[in-house]
């Protein structure tokens, strides 16, 4: 069982930056960040394969967000730049054991609010 602990959310003005962190208690195959805005479904933002570092980004965040991982700290990061009000959501860290299994591990969520 892997536990994920997130940190780094907050309130920022449009155009600003935030970095989210997600510390994992064990090894994972792929880590990811998802978000859910009020009244909307949860959506994938970015994912990273732990061993290779290969990444995936939603079109809405390409060029603005960067996902990365620190092997020594077993931590996944999401650097968010040029934030927009539409990025406001609860952001969740998630992990999976392989690309054929569901996202079985989830963090508690952290609020990101971008003011205009």
SSE layout and pairing:
Elements: E1 4-7, E2 10-13, E3 18-24, E4 30-36, E5 43-49, E6 55-57, E7 65-70, E8 75-80, E9 89-96, E10 105-106, E11 110-115
Parallel strand pairs: 2-11
Antiparallel strand pairs: 1-3, 3-8, 4-5, 4-9, 5-6, 7-8, 9-10, 9-11
N-to-C terminal Cα separation, in Å? Answer: 40 Å
Q: What series of H and E elements makes up the topology?
A: EEEEEEEEEEE
Overall spatial form: globular
Which structural class is indicated by helix and strand composition?
A: mainly beta
* Approximate helicity band: under 10%
Average pLDDT level: 96
Helix count from the secondary structure assignment: 0
Main sheet: strands, sense, barrel: 7 strands, mixed
Low-confidence stretches: none
In terms of DSSP E residues, the strand content is over 45%
What is the gyration radius calculated from CA atoms? 13 Å
Beta-strand segment tally: 11
Question: Could you characterize what this model shows?
Answer:
With 116 residues, this protein is mainly β. Helix content is 0%, strand content 52%. The chain has strands at residues 4-7, 10-13, 18-24, 30-36, 43-49, 55-57, 65-70, 75-80, 89-96, 105-106, 110-115. Strands 2, 4, 5, 6, 9, 10 and 11 form a seven-stranded mixed beta sheet that branches. The chain has a four-stranded antiparallel beta sheet with strand order 1-3-8-7, with no helix packed on it. The protein is globular and about 40 Å long. The mean pLDDT is 96.
């Amino acid at each position: 069982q892997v536990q994920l602990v997130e940190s780094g959310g907050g309130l920022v003005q449009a155009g600003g930056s935030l970095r989210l962190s997600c510390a994992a208690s064990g090894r994972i195959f792929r880590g990811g960040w998802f978000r859910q805005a009020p009244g909307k479904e949860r959506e994938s933002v970015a994912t990273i394969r732990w061993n290779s570092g290969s990444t995936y980004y939603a079109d809405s965040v390409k060029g603005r967000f960067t996902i990365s991982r620190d092997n020594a700290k077993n931590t996944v990061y999401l650097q968010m730049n040029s934030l927009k009000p539409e990025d406001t959501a609860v952001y969740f860290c998630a992990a999976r054991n392989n690309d054929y299994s569901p996202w079985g591990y989830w963090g508690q969520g952290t609020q990101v609010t971008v003011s205009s």
